Amino acid sequence: MRYLVATDATETSELLADYLADRVDADDEIHAVNSQVGGDETTSDEIREGEAALETLEEALPKSVLVETHQFVRGNQPEEDVLTHAEEIGADELVFTVRDRSPAGKAIFGSTAQRLLLGSDRPMRVIPRE
Question: Please, which residues have CB within 8 angstroms of residue 119's CB and are 6 or more apart in sequence?
Fold first, then answer.
C-alpha cells in the first residue's frame, strides 16, 4: 500500500503516526508531505516547523516501513501540492487530519481538508484533531 500523508505540525504528525503505526507493514510506503506557499506568505519559522513535522512522523513510524518525506515550497496551495504528489506517486490512500471549525470560519478562510476531500477520488482516511 502506498500512503500519502499530509502534515502541517508536529502534533499533527504524532496523531497521524498513531493512526498508521498499527496499519502499516514492511511492504508499505509512506510519502509524507508538508506544503508551504513560499515567498512573502511563508516565514522561515514555518519552514522549520514543516521540517520538524516531517521528521516527527518519520521517527514515530516503524523503521521497517519506507518513509519518504517531501517539503514543497513552490507557490502552490497545500491541497494542490498534496493532490499533485498523490497523482505522481500513484497513492493508494490519502491520510490527513481535520480541525473542528465553525461554518463561518470555513467560508471565510477555506479548508485544506475540505478541498482535499472534494479534489480527489482516492480513498482517504481523515483523522480528527482533538
Answer: 79, 83
**Contacts by 76-79 with C-beta closer than 8 Å and gap 24+?**
76/35, 76/37, 77/35, 77/37, 77/112, 77/115, 78/6, 78/8, 78/35, 78/36, 78/37, 78/112, 79/112, 79/115, 79/116, 79/119
- Which CATH superfamily hosts domain 2-128? HUPs (3.40.50.620)
Sorted by where each begins, the domain ranges of the chain are 2-128
pLDDT in tens, 35-86: 998 888 899 999 999 999 999 999 999 999 999 999 999 999 999 999 999 9
- The conformation of residue 23, written as its DSSP 8-state character, comes to T
